[in-house]
TrEMBL record:
The entry's keywords: Signal, Thioester bond
Superkingdom field: Eukaryota
SUPFAM superfamilies xrefs: Alpha-macroglobulin receptor domain, Terpenoid cyclases/Protein prenyltransferases
Entry protein name: Alpha-macroglobulin-like TED domain-containing protein
All copies of domain Alpha-macroglobulin-like TED, residue ranges: 19-156
InterPro entries: A-macroglobulin_rcpt-bd_sf, A2M/Complement_sys, Alpha-macroglobulin_TED, Terpenoid_cyclase/PrenylTrfase
GO cellular component terms, semicolon-separated: extracellular space
Length: 277
């Protein structure tokens, strides 16, 4: 039978390409040609999705590179820059430095593979680590690792959802600051509450049955840059008229190590539009 969104010929080509890709990856695994952690992570997930008998073999190889600290599990990339902090702080250092994007990607693919192989309980230590890497907006270091990271967390949440989920979660300080009720009906929904005031210490308690993730995010204003900038940006106003202006923007990277994709955003004052001619 053909797929409803494809004609029979396209469906045949897609199936044939998938079969050839699977066979090629299996040959690489059988010949031990894959050594780099990121490649192992991607191939593990791809073969587990394809129900390949070699998925476990390549995933077991990836697991040999994993790192364990207490009740968390994660991976660090082979790159020599893996131990370098993503951001250098000049006058203040936060309690936790976000991991490299490659580490987040590898760990995310590992979680996806755990869930595909039906080893959901084994994914929990990696999920614990991954959730500590999220920023205050819920994303991660870059667009790519945010997409894969959220996919991994969603897959784990879906597979680990229990029919008898019923949790009462309280956030307390001097008094009860917030309370959440988590049931099977809302277990996959985001609940947000703003804590009153600015309590110095809070305690989170949960009673009942099920799994839930609780994050506490805070933000504050400063009068100077806390981190050493990664880029230097300079602007020169070439000419300025009532209805037009020409602005030259120069960007220079200050760090020596390699980076991936960089996106520079330029905001335009209200009432103007860019001349792309």
């Amino acid at each position: 039978p053909c797929h409803e969104s494809l004609d029979c010929y396209d469906f045949y080509l897609l199936g044939n390409a998938t079969k050839n890709t699977k066979a090629n990856l299996e040959n690489l695994v059988a010949s031990n040609a894959i050594e780099e952690q990121f490649s192992l992570a991607v191939v593990s997930y791809a073969l587990s999705k394809a129900k390949s008998p070699l998925a476990k073999r390549v995933f077991d190889k990836l697991l040999t590179f994993s790192k364990t600290e207490g009740n968390i599990l994660y991976w660090k990339a082979n790159s020599s820059d893996a131990d370098a902090p993503r951001v250098r702080y000049a006058i203040w250092r936060p309690p936790r430095i976000q991991a490299q994007s490659s580490d987040i990607l590898i760990t995310s693919y590992a979680i996806l593979t755990f869930t595909e192989l039906g080893r959901v309980n084994e994914a929990l230590p990696a999920v614990r680590w991954l959730t500590t890497q999220r920023n205050e907006q819920g994303g991660f270091s870059s667009t790519q690792d945010t997409v894969v990271g959220l996919q991994a967390l969603s897959a784990y949440a879906t597979k680990s959802l229990r029919p008898n989920t019923k949790l009462n979660i309280q956030v307390t300080g001097p008094s009860v600051l917030a309370a959440f009720n988590v049931t099977r009906d809302n277990a996959l929904s985001l609940q947000i509450k703003q804590l009153p005031g600015a309590p110095k210490d809070v305690v989170i308690t949960a009673t009942g049955s099920g799994i839930a993730l609780v994050d506490i995010d805070y933000s504050f204003n400063v009068n100077a840059e806390l981190a050493t900038p990664s880029f230097d940006v300079s602007t020169v106003l070439l000419y300025d008229k009532v209805d037009a202006f020409n602005l030259m923007i120069c960007t220079k990277r200050l760090l020596s190590r390699e980076t991936g994709m960089v996106v520079q955003e330029i905001n335009i004052p209200s009432g103007f539009k860019p001349d792309l001619s």
